Amino acid sequence: RSRKQSLEKKVGEMMLAIQAGAGDPAETLSKLAEILDGGEMVAGILLRAAELARQEKSSAVALQGEKERLAEKLVKVEGENERLNDQLWEMKLSAAEGLSASRKEIEVYLRRSEASEVLNEELSARLSRLVKERRQQREYIKLLEASVARLGGQLRGHDRGLRICDGALHRREVDEQLVAFRRSTEFAAAERWDYSLASAAVG
Fold first, then answer.
1. C-alpha to C-alpha distance for 18 and 12, rounded to whole angstroms
2. Which of 87, 98, 142, 203 is the most exposed place for a label (fewest CB within 10 A)?
3. Is residue 120 within 8 Å of residue 194, measured between CB atoms?
């Protein structure tokens, strides 16, 4: 009878421990192990299970933190993408305005060339420079469009990675991709600057 009462008491304590530890498996298992006495085999198993539950919870917290950091990085990359889109639009608008102004200048040269052979030669040189400038502007715009498309692909890849992620992702990989992208845009900007200097020297 005494053993029955002891078992009933333990069962009652176990039920209270389960209710008190609702939502926290590790805490519940630890309390059950204390009730069953650490020297018993079942209690030892429960203690090990509690430790595994704590480790799993810690890993889940770390993974969530990594996901949040990657989400912040994605927001920054999207902002950079918007900035590049704005820059691309400004370049296209500037190129269109430049071509319109160039056409007007060409019309003036054509009218003047009717009265002078010298003006004809000047017009020919001017046309050559304008054609070269237009070609280089188109190449620069294509380079910017390719950069924006490549960045868009990276954004889609990161977005898929966040949706199907079942483990920690590496921040260094994202940083390396961003560095490579910045280098490509800096190289394009340097080429544009070199061309501007050359045009200024010719002018």
1. 10
2. 203
3. no
Residue 133 and residue 166 share a domain = yes
Structure tokens at 22: 């609702």
- By residue count, the chain amounts to 203
What six digits make up the tokens of 102? 């160039």
Residue range(s) defining the domain that contains residue 30: 2-58
With CA atoms as reference, report the closest residue to 187 among 149, 140, 154, 152: 140
154 and 193 housed in the same domain? yes
pTM: 0.30
- Into how many domains does the chain fold? 2
Together in a domain, 147 and 102: yes
The answer to whether residues 133 and 47 belong to one domain is no
- Write b or e for each residue in 32-71: b if 16 or more Cβ atoms lie within 10 A of its Cβ, otherwise e: bbebbeeeeeebeebbebbeebbeeeeeeeeeeebeeebe
